[in-house]
Structure formats: structure tokens, C-alpha cells
Model the fold of this input.
Amino acid sequence: MVYDSIITLNEKSIQNNISFLRSKFGEKVKISAVVKANAYGHGIEQIVPVFDKYGIDHFSVFYYKEAVRVYNCSSKPRSIMVMGWLCDEDIKDAIEKGIEFFVFSIERLKTAVEFAKDLNLKAKIHIEAETGMNRSGLDFGEIECAIEIIKENISFIEVCGFCTHLAGAESISNHFRIQNQLQKYKEMFARFEASGLNAKYKHVANSAASFVYPDTRMDMVRVGIMLYGFWSSTEVFVQYINNQNDRLDPLKRILGWKSHIMSLKKVKSGEFVGYGISYLAQGDIVTALVPVGYSMGYNRSLSNKGHVLIRGHRCNLIGLVNMNMIIIDVTNIKNVEVGDAVVLIGKQGKLEIKVSSFSNLCEELNYEVLAHLSESITRIVSK
Ligand SMILES: *Cc1c(COP(=O)(O)O)cnc(C)c1O
Done:
């Protein structure tokens, strides 16, 4: 027992999720595994080799530094796509390494052309179209301009993709907006194609869109949350499951997080526990200290609300979540000992602490709970 807390990743669940998604999308649709935010908290270095093993050869990230981490963790040829931030110097490095990136401004396109010329290589780009999210992307006029630049520099630019991002496919309330976006995307791509240019992959869908609007799968889907075993929203899950006979969730969670009891203490009735006066012992109680706190990603708003599993029991978190510790009421657990396993997320016996229970309590999205898991937590893949 050398770790303070540990994240385990279940390889069988990863395999299950990939094969479920493949069976839905078919072989013609490329799956780009989104591994931004440290692979949604699962760990880039641990997840990428396993995704590799089960046939994923396209990865998407937000920051260039994440792309380099993906690049460094396998020798296999694969596509890596930066959907967000890279600075000018990164663009040069990306071209040298063959890393692909979104182009959402004419300046970025021009910079890419300059570096590609210097290096006598092709910059691999994805044209991001602004279709109505009003976040990033080239508008109609800028697409015209990009077309000219690409045509003039066709030996230095490879158009790997023509893409956009949909503004909330996981909620039916955005239906109208999404339809408008898809219409606009079609028109913009038609203009692009009419110029004589083409793109290897047309892609617009994230996890939610790929299920709610199957037409959006096109040549490639950028799937994040579902690969990790979560539905984008309850709506998306309900829509899917209502059309199935077995009513079973086909996705499996990959991640478990556990720690140990660091010390035990008896607290007398009428005493406050931890900082301040938020928890008052109503009787003589036994408390267990667990070396995990908000610095590891255990949200502070779970103070006096969270639950953990110890010896097959669900136990209450009492008092405030500290930077490095939480306190658990273990009064009713017989034979409880220092060193006992404490499940923060995952299963123990028949009980389970789900990320969703976590996120409901602290009003966070699954995405947030996962993304906040500190990179410093040890992560291992279990068979
Ligand atoms: C994060 C992201 C995705 C993946 O979203 P999921 O809901 O996790 O599938 C796809 N595309 C873009 C542009 C993203 O930023």
C-alpha cells in the first residue's frame, strides 16, 4: 500500500465501449477518441495505449501540449488533431510531427503556410466552419478567403477535415439551433467543394450528436464521454434505451477511484468535527480520516453530503472537504481498521458510488467531476 489514492481503469470496459460504438457507427465512420483534459481525467498515458490496442488510431485534444503527450505515448502511426490552442511555435512543431490542427482564423492559416514552406512539408489542417455556435470558426467570407490561400499553396496544405461543432446536441431544447447549424454546414461545405477542393473527413458530431442525429456521423465522429462509459445527458440515454428491448446500458464505466483509512478516532457526543461548526456529533461516533481532498479533485461542495464505501457499507462524509483530507462516519462498521479500502468512485460488493451521484450532489457535470481528478493521482490499467 504505497499510494494515497489510486485510479484504476478497467480494460474490459474500454474494449466494451469501443466495440459498442463501432457496432453502432459501422466500419465506414472513423472514431476520433477525444482525450482532452487528461483523457477526461482518466490519464492520457494510460488510456491512449489501450485505445490503440483496440483499434483507435485517431485522437483529438484541445491543447497542443496534450497532442505531444499522445504523440509520445505510442510508436504506432496515428492521427492527432488539435481542436483548440496552439501558439505559432507549436504550429511549426505540429507540421514537423504531422500533427493536425483546426484552422479557425485566416491568421492561423497564413502562419501554417509560412512554416510549411520553410520546412518544405505539408501542414495538415481541419477547416472549422462557424455555423452558429459563435465560438470559433471561419464564417462564409473567411472560408472564401481560405479557399484562395489553400489553392495558392496547395503543395503546403493538406485539408484533412472540414468540420464544425454543434451547440448542445445533448438537449432537445437546442434542436432548432442544431438544425440550422447543420444546414449552414452543408452550404459552407458545398461552397468549399465547388472550388475544387476537398477534405478527407467531414466531421461535426460529438457523442450526443452521433446518437441523437445519426446523419451527423458523416466520415468521422469525435467521441469523448461515451468512450469513458457515460452518456452525454440523461436525455440522450433515455432516447437510446427507449428503442431497445433489453433496456440495459450498453456502456461500461472505466474508472474507479479508491483510497484507504489513514487513521481512526472516537469523537464524543456534542463535539464538532473538523474545521468550523458545520458538523456536530449527535452521539458518540467513530470517524475515519481519508487522505483525499479538493486538491485531488474531490469537490468541496460534497462537504457533509458525499458518500464512500468501506467494508461493503455506504458511509457519510462529515464536516468539510479539506485540501487533502475527508472525514467519514464509520460508527456502524464493525471491525473497521486503519488501512481499510475506501471507494470514492466505483464498486465494492453490491454497492456503487457513481460519478453521476457525485455530480448530482455537487451540481457539476460528469465531465467536470472527471476533468477535475488531479493528474498527480496514480493511475493503473486493470485487466
Ligand atoms: C469535447 C469535444 C468533443 C467531444 O465531446 P463529447 O461530448 O465528450 O463526446 C467533440 N468535439 C469538440 C470540438 C469538443 O470540444
Observations:
- The chain has a mean pLDDT of 96.
- The longest helix spans residues 175-194.
- The pocket of pyridoxal-5'-phosphate is lined by residues 34, 36, 83, 165, 206-208, 222-225, 232 (CB under 6 Å).
- The radius of gyration is 24 Å.
